[in-house]
Automatic annotation (TrEMBL):
GO terms for molecular function: oxidoreductase activity. Keywords: Flavoprotein, FMN, NADP, Oxidoreductase. This is NAD(P)H-dependent oxidoreductase. It comes from Aquimarina algicola. The keyword NADP applies. CDD domains: NfsB-like. The lineage of its organism: Bacteria, Pseudomonadati, Bacteroidota, Flavobacteriia, Flavobacteriales. Belongs to the nitroreductase family.
């Protein structure tokens, strides 16, 4: 199982080589891996920003605890979850489903009503938590895809979401920054690349009931 070897290779890269850039071909593979991520009802209630503009990244660095990855990595990936999932988003998904699978939209009405009913039960706070959880599945696929391509990545929660929302104009779009990841290639000066991976023993992490 090559995935295990890829995952053993990867680590949260602390220092990137700013001179090395990810090819468009590899970036497209990463994007497709994220797009294939599982999500509740298949709604994909999030948006993924690929920030390459150096000036915007300079603005984001101070509100990312000053971390160098924000400006040095090839790309900064910002996973943004929708703060609300309304009937319009559900209808849009059902139309796409009908078109993609060759299904009569009328046959999806009952499913759509069920989705709207269940999702409508969320409070504002639980809605934000629910959409945020979808984002992390996409992040996991991004990390695995990068590892297979031997592209370094660092998932990061050390940033100020409200400031990201302001700088990137997310609030006006009904989005909020949930988690970010920097991707690129490790610097030879990154001392942490040689650290042994620290994980709980399998026997401690898992329990068969």
């Amino acid at each position: 199982m090559q995935l295990l070897e890829h995952l053993k290779w990867r680590y949260a890269t602390k220092k990137f080589d700013a001179t090395k850039k990810i090819s468009e071909t590899d970036l497209n593979k990463i994007k497709e891996a994220v797009s294939l991520s599982a999500s509740s009802y298949g709604l994909q209630a999030y948006k993924v920003l690929i920030v390459e503009d150096p000036e915007i990244r300079k603005q984001l660095q101070p509100v990312s605890w000053g971390q160098s990855q924000i400006v040095d990595a090839s790309q900064l990936i910002v996973f943004c979850s929708y703060t609300q999932v309304g009937p319009e988003m559900i209808d849009s998904y059902l139309n796409l489903k009908a078109k993609t699978q060759g299904v009569d939209p009328e046959n999806l009405t009952g499913y759509g009503d069920f989705m709207k009913s269940k999702i409508g039960e969320h409070s504002d706070e639980s809605m934000k938590n629910w959409t945020a959880r979808q984002v992390y599945i996409g992040l996991g696929n991004l990390l695995a895809a990068c590892a297979e391509l031997k592209i370094d990545a660092c998932p990061m929660e050390g940033f100020e979401p409200d400031q990201y929302n302001t700088i990137l104009g997310l609030s006006d779009k009904g989005l909020t920054a949930t988690v970010v990841a920097t991707i690129g290639y490790r610097s030879t000066e990154d001392a942490t690349q040689n650290d042994k991976k620290v994980r709980k023993p399998i026997s401690e992490l898992f329990e068969i009931i």
